[in-house]
Amino acid sequence: RSRRPLTKAALSSLLNNFMEQYRERIGSRDFLNGRTLSHNPAENILAWHIPAGKRRLFFSGRLQSCDVKVPALIAIAKNQHLWIYAIADKGRPQPDTMLCLTPLWNIDDNGSMCRGNVEYPKFNNPESIKKWEDALFQSAFSHPNGMQAHIKGVKRGEEHAFWLKQQASDRAFPVNKLVSMKITLGQAIAKIKDHG
Question: How far is the CA of 4 from the CAs of 1, 10, 17, in angstroms?
């Protein structure tokens, strides 16, 4: 008998069958425990929750860096792409959790991060979450992306002043400043799954 390596299609089919059996065993299609919200190796997608809290943000230009409280965030990685969303909810995000634009820079109106020269992890699995977060928070936030303001009541060009005010405050990020995207976490994951 001659042996031939598996074709890409055969390997994909085998992996999809494995994932279906795995999902049946854990009783959930995508949502997992801990900070990991969704992990689908067959589609190379990972979603997780970043709790609200104090972070050091690095800026290029006049602000340089500041320690500020950021809202709770949702990160979704697929292949070599990263999407970041803010949420107003305090508990564990669910598929019906409404997403908001993130107030962080380098993120466009669809949540996609402008990569610049940031090195992304090679893999999308729960073990790579810290590397993905390092890629996000250790990058230089160089500019607000997108066409709309990502912070309610803060006009374009006034973002530096907003972050300086946040740095001087001991309060949590004001979630009333978040701009709704009118999309749920479940809808965002489904949309990203279709992204090439």
Answer: 10, 12, 21
Q: Which residue has the tokens 């279709």?
A: 194
Residue 183 pLDDT: 96
Largest CA distance in the chain: 73
Query: How would residue 119 be classed by pLDDT, with cut points 50, 70 and 90?
Result: confident
* Residue 150: how many other CB atoms lie within 10 Å: 23
Give residue-wise pLDDT tens across range 126-144.
888 999 999 999 888 877 7
What number of other Cβ atoms are within 10 A of residue 119's Cβ? 11
The pLDDT value recorded for residue 28 is 44
3-state DSSP call for residue 129? helix
> What distance in Å separates the CA atoms of residue 38 and residue 121, rounded to the nearest whole number?
17
Backbone φ and ψ for 76, nearest 5 degrees, come out as -130, 125
Dihedral angle, C-alpha 153, 158, 164, 168, nearest 10 °: -30
**Which residues are 75's β-sheet partners?**
48, 84
- For residue 140, the model assigns a pLDDT of 82
Q: Which of 136, 145, 167, 135 shows the shortest CA–CA distance to 64?
A: 167
- The residue type found at 151 is I
Q: In sequence order, what are the residues at sequence separation of 6 or more whose Cβ sits closer than 8 angstroms to the Cβ of residue 126? A: 32, 34, 36, 39, 46, 48
